[in-house]
Amino acid sequence: MLNDNLLLKSILDKFNLSTQLQITCVNKDKKLKVQSSSTSYNLLKEEIDLALSSSKKLQNYIDTKMIEFVSLEENKEVGIIYINLNNEINDYFILGPFSTTNNLEIISYPYRPKYCITYIADLLLIIIKDSKSFNCKITEKFFSLNIKKTIEYIHKNYDEQLTIDSISKMLNIHKCYFCNSFKKETGMTFTNFLCKFRVEKSKELLLNPSLSILDIAISVGFNNQSYYTMMFKKLTNLTPLEYRKSLI
């Protein structure tokens, strides 16, 4: 279920990485669930309460593309969207704080014009749906302890050099037994699973046009750009550059 806080936090961190904008998830009872990882712009509980109590349009609204803007104080705003996605997410997402005034002398948080926030809100939906698509096969299956540990380790250390030998040594099991068990339980070889996960992670970084394809390849654990491009093309039928252009 997407409402699992670990998965929600992963989604919010992806969003924050892509937009450099703080995001907070609050349930329908207006209780804080998750915030994106440490940032200078964390909302205080009082600000969250103020934002939600000031919201008028979203109380019973189902359209996930609608966003409402709420002023917390002069030059300090948040955007609120309510998402109800196949009964798996039924929460408020608060984007910000941000300023719609581009004056660095009077603000200490990101400048984002309102028209920009509406597009950024759509990005959140893309990240949620991509995360759901990739994680559903993993979260709905039962795995043995060794395979579960391996998947969790990949999630946390995908950007490092991971090999069958290193994982087998970590688990203290024979590598042939590990390979057979991993393929049997996940339906993929360890190498294919790792590459697929790295490619999915790289999609988040491709949203940032300032990052080169080489930088992205290295950031997610590929040793060189050529191999990264080949695997990306194999899994998506697009090169990383073509995928980036498709997002524009």
UniProtKB/TrEMBL annotation:
<feature type="domain" description="HTH araC/xylS-type">
    <location>
        <begin position="148"/>
        <end position="246"/>
    </location>
</feature>
<keyword id="KW-0805">Transcription regulation</keyword>
<dbReference type="InterPro" id="IPR018062">
    <property type="entry name" value="HTH_AraC-typ_CS"/>
</dbReference>
<dbReference type="InterPro" id="IPR018060">
    <property type="entry name" value="HTH_AraC"/>
</dbReference>
<protein>
    <submittedName>
        <fullName>Helix-turn-helix transcriptional regulator</fullName>
    </submittedName>
</protein>
<dbReference type="InterPro" id="IPR009057">
    <property type="entry name" value="Homeodomain-like_sf"/>
</dbReference>
<keyword id="KW-0804">Transcription</keyword>
<dbReference type="Pfam" id="PF12833">
    <property type="entry name" value="HTH_18"/>
</dbReference>
<keyword id="KW-0238">DNA-binding</keyword>
<dbReference type="InterPro" id="IPR020449">
    <property type="entry name" value="Tscrpt_reg_AraC-type_HTH"/>
</dbReference>
